[in-house]
Specification:
The structure holds two protein chains of two kinds. Chain A is mostly helical. Chain A has eleven helices and no strands. The chains are: A mainly alpha, B mainly alpha.
Chain lengths: 279, 268
């Protein structure tokens, strides 16, 4: 059973990486059809940097992702503190609202926001209401639940005495937050912010319904591209992005593994010293 | 900072950008282009019943396949050392950081009539197979894209199972299959429920996968909604269909939560 599971896991992982291999090969292919190998070239990578179309769109995606995840993190952390102070009944209602964007199909969220913006547009008599602001609002909205769901558990895990001790020692409520509470919940805030950032960077479905022609993000443009004959420089861009993310993840893994090793070494040393002291 | 008012900006935000938009969807579903009340859109939904059934069916099949494939993988990862777990988990999540549009395009290149797989098949001297534009291709696309969503919660739940429970069951005379059936599996049900939901919801409402890997025969409800807003421009019908889709998902989540036995909505 163990070996079966092992082999099976390897097969599934290979399955998950098949398209990556196809995209990587297509980016190096001299022909435009990924199914026909016409020889090795780096032309597509050169094209990517020469044509100056895709990289600004990637920048647009990053801009929306950075701003929306930052704002969602601030608003969401504040909300988590508020929710933490609520009674169970109110908490349940608020968490129910928080769950709406998570459980609703993305297409419904996208459509409902598009209708809202169209409504606001007619109300304010703006003919093309869709653009950067609507995109940002939509991204903040779907990012907020991720922040709240990662911060609230940290708040309930936190020892409430810590904050009270800070208050007893003369901190104001604000000081107690910035000197004590925020450090306790920081891992939750960081993971919420990271999750928001990745969700936002990769979002297509919701963006597709609320973007305007003046501000297009990379996933939306890819969708518009895939209706036309594909341009191989897209493969090049994503192969590069994949490699960068792979590198970052491997580095993070190595750093964490090193920390682990150090911690276990320290623990062992400490235990050894205690033993010697006991002797 | 025990202050409920800190949540106020958030609640105002959610009211304006989540609750009111759903109200507008509701309003559009029950009005016509001029804003007059009508039941015509709801009435029209009957014509789309086969598409609804098809969407639910394909999403259900995909979710079940994801569960069957994802469970052994999650189980295997959860049984590794701390470092091994982190590494394998990273490998599962990594493909998700590439745009799902492009990953789907890669499958088009693989499955196309003149695609990579058929290239191999013809090279072996066999006739090319009709791989793309089939139900199976759409299911494959769904399984591929959403499998990590199944593995993620399953792994989290299985990892947290107290190994002493397994040992206790073994001490009390359970064989390995019995341990799995009577201890590990029942304890992993919450993970199954949230994994199932996380695969089913995006799968039932997708429009890109079916456009690329399917044919006109595999038009899904997401495709119809998308076309009402982007090409056919009948937002009223689109809103009515969205409303039904939303209800469908809510019912599905409700049923799934019955299985797990707790009232909380299964997410993430």
């Amino acid at each position: 059973m163990k070996t079966f599971n092992k082999v099976f896991t390897v097969v599934v992982l290979l399955f998950l990486y098949v398209p990556m291999i196809v995209l990587g090969a297509a980016s190096l292919n001299a022909g435009t059809d990924p199914a026909v190998w016409k020889g090795l070239t780096l032309f597509n990578y050169g094209e990517l940097f020469r044509d100056g179309v895709l990289l600004p769109l990637l920048l647009n995606s990053v801009i929306v992702a950075v701003i929306s995840s930052m704002l969602a993190t601030i608003l969401g952390t504040m909300a988590s503190l508020g929710i933490h102070a609520m009674g169970p009944r109110m908490k349940r209602t608020v968490m129910g609202v928080t769950n709406i964007p998570l459980t609703n199909p993305e297409i419904v969220t996208g459509v409902s926001m598009a209708l809202l913006f169209a409504f606001i547009g007619t109300l304010l008599k703006i003919s093309n209401v869709l653009g950067f602001v609507t995109l940002l609002i939509a991204h903040i909205t779907f990012n907020l639940p991720y922040v709240i769901l990662s911060v609230t558990p940290k708040l309930s895990q936190m020892d409430p005495d810590l904050r009270e001790a800070a208050l007893d020692l003369g901190c104001t409520s604000g000081q107690a937050f910035f000197k004590v509470v925020i450090h306790e919940i920081m891992p939750g805030i960081i993971s919420g912010a990271l999750m928001s950032f990745t969700m936002s960077l990769d979002d297509f479905v919701i963006s597709y319904f609320v973007y305007g022609p003046n501000f297009v993000t990379l996933p939306v443009e890819i969708y518009n591209y895939t209706k036309k004959p594909l341009q191989p420089k897209i493969y090049a861009l994503f192969t590069l992005m994949f490699l960068v993310i792979l590198l970052m993840m491997v580095l993070m893994n190595l750093l964490e593994a090193r920390d682990d090793r150090r911690q276990s070494l320290a623990r062992r040393a400490l235990a050894g010293r205690r033993e010697r002291a006991a002797e | 900072m025990r202050n409920k008012t800190l949540a106020a900006p958030y609640l105002v935000w959610m009211a304006i950008f989540t609750v009111i938009p759903l109200g507008i969807v509701f309003y559009f579903a029950f009005t016509d282009g001029t804003g007059a009340f009508t039941l015509a859109n709801i009435d029209n939904i009957g014509n789309y019943l086969p598409i609804f059934v098809k969407s639910v069916w394909l999403a259900l099949v995909s979710s079940i396949i994801c569960l069957i494939i994802g469970y052994p993988v999650a189980y295997y990862i959860a049984g590794r050392s701390h470092r091994g777990q982190r590494f394998l988990y990273m490998l599962v999540m990594l493909p998700m950081c590439i745009s799902f549009l492009l990953r789907t395009m890669a499958w088009v290149a693989l499955l196309d009539d003149t695609g990579i797989l058929n290239g191999f098949i013809t090279a072996l001297g066999m006739k090319p197979l009709p791989l793309i534009r089939t139900n199976a291709a759409v299911v494959l696309g769904m399984v591929y894209n959403y499998l990590p969503y199944m593995i993620m919660p399953l792994y989290t739940v299985i990892m947290k199972i107290d190994p002493r429970l397994v040992e206790a069951a073994q001490d009390l005379g359970c064989s390995n299959p019995q341990v799995f059936r009577r201890v590990v599996f029942p304890l992993s049900v919450p993970g199954i429920v949230s994994g199932f939901t996380m695969v089913f919801v995006p799968a039932v409402s997708t429009f890109y996968i079916s456009q690329k890997l399917g044919s006109s025969g595999t038009t899904l409800i997401g495709d119809v909604i998308e076309s009402q807003f982007k090409t056919a421009y009948n937002p009223n019908l689109g809103a009515a269909l969205s409303l039904v889709l939303m209800l469908l998902v809510l019912i599905c989540i409700g049923v799934m939560n019955r299985f797990s036995g707790d009232g909380e909505v299964a997410t993430v």
